[in-house]
Amino acid sequence: FFFFLGQTFQVTSQEATKLSLAFSRPPLPSAENCRKLSEDVQNAILAVATVYYWLPKGQGTTLRKMVRDATTEVVEGMIQLTDTILNAPVESLSQEQLISTGGVWEACEQVSNLPRDNQAAVVSALAASLGVVKDAVEEMEHALVEGQDPYGDIMEDEELGFRGNRDTYWSEADRQLLSSCMGLMKASKACLKKVLAAVKAHGKADSPEHIAQLDDLADIANEISPSVDELALSMYPPVNPLAVRLNAAKLASVLKKVLEIAKTSHVCPPSEEGWVQFLTGAVDHNMNKVKNFTQGQL
Fold first, then answer.
1. In a shared domain, residues 136 and 283
2. What is the domain-level CATH number for residue 18?
């Protein structure tokens, strides 16, 4: 499959080059040549789409989505190149045309980086989520440094008022609540790290059951990063404790689901059960602290 997909991507890249060169300087191609160029581009794109549909759904939805995204990028790149040529003056090769041509080349080259099975696809998806969550944790840790103004990098303006405006600072009670939220965010990072390692070590794409388990894990793990972001946003002053509690509960629920799905799947043999239990306890512990700190707000 990937051999044929690579071939169709390569042909599309070549057709983009031919199309761009034909319209890079006067004279314009004849009507007959234009028709031939259009047909070749259309055939290349149809071949790309056809090969994508050869990929059986049973190979895994995570893998299929990544191949679909790569295919879509190639098609959209060619559409943009065509639009750019149609709207550009004939006298010279425009900067936009050069960029659009390069965009198609880049999209076509991505085929070599695509995962070859669902285990590799899920590893790739989990690694991407882990990177985003790591950044969110570091950003919030930096903002929570004792005595630091979370809006210190924003110039004073009429809306925020002077730096003395208490709505731009955390109170001591806020900081106590937020330390438990940080515990949940760190548990999110640890959860993704451990699940990623387990999928790398034990994940298999050798049966419909294993492939489906990997997809279930990827689907729920994809919810961690947006949930971390929502919690982080609600942690900035002025803090609404109930909003923080709600977002913390959402994140805790997602983490518990990830751990539960991981525990019952083939990626978690008995050797992996220790960290699942530990992280489940860590999520409960931090969520209970958030509940205690916000109890008076209910």
1. yes
2. 1.20.1420.10
Is the domain of 102 the same as that of 247?
Answer: no
Q: Is the pLDDT of residue 162 over 50?
A: no
Residues 20, 125 within the same domain: no
CA atoms of 190 and 185, how far apart (whole Å): 9
Tokens of 115: 């995962």
Check which CATH number belongs to the domain holding 174 and give it. 1.20.1410.10
Question: Which of 155-164, 166-175, 289-298 has the least mean pLDDT?
Answer: 155-164
State the DSSP string of 130-185: HHHHHHHHHHHHHHTSTT--TTTTS--BTTTBSTT-GGGS--HHHHHHHHHHHHHH
How many domains in the chain?
Answer: 2
Domain that holds residue 104: 1-112
Q: Cite the DSSP H helix spans in the chain.
A: 2-22, 31-54, 61-87, 95-109, 118-143, 172-202, 208-221, 224-234, 241-263, 273-294
pLDDT, mean over the chain: 90
pLDDT in tens, 74-117: 999 999 999 998 887 666 677 888 899 999 999 999 999 999 99
